[in-house]
Design brief:
Elements lengths: L7 H30 L9 H7 L3
Length: about 55
């Protein structure tokens, strides 16, 4: 009978770590794309409008 290379607990821990790493990379990519989108001319903030909304 063949035995698994990793015990069940270690496989779950490895799978959980891989999932967290993948989600972290996905989050960084989404945030980077969103931040990059603000550098395009059509997405720039009108700071005068923001100041008006804040009451300044």
């Amino acid at each position: 009978m063949m035995r698994d290379a990793l015990p069940h607990q270690d496989r779950l821990r490895t799978r959980h770590a891989l999932r967290r790493f993948s989600l972290g990379v996905a989050l960084v990519v989404v945030l980077a794309l969103g931040l990059w989108g603000y550098t395009t001319p059509s997405m720039r903030l009108a700071w005068e409008s923001v100041a008006t909304m804040c009451g300044f």
